[in-house]
Amino acid sequence: MATLTRPDGTEAADLALSRRALLLAAGYAAFDIAANAEPISTPDTGLVTGWETLPGGLPAYVARPAKKGKHPAVIVVNEIFGVHAWIQDVCRRFAQAGYVAIAPEYFFRGDPDKTLPKLTDFTAIRAIVAKAGHEQVMGDTKTTLDWLAGQGFVNGRKLAITGFCWGGAVTWMAAARFPQLKAGGAWYGRIKGDPGAEGRKWPLEIASELKAPVLGLYGALDKGIPVADVEAMQAALKGSKSQIILYPEADHGFLADYRPSYNAAAGQDAWAKLLAHFKANGV
Question: Is the pTM of this model over 0.85?
Answer without folding.
Answer: yes
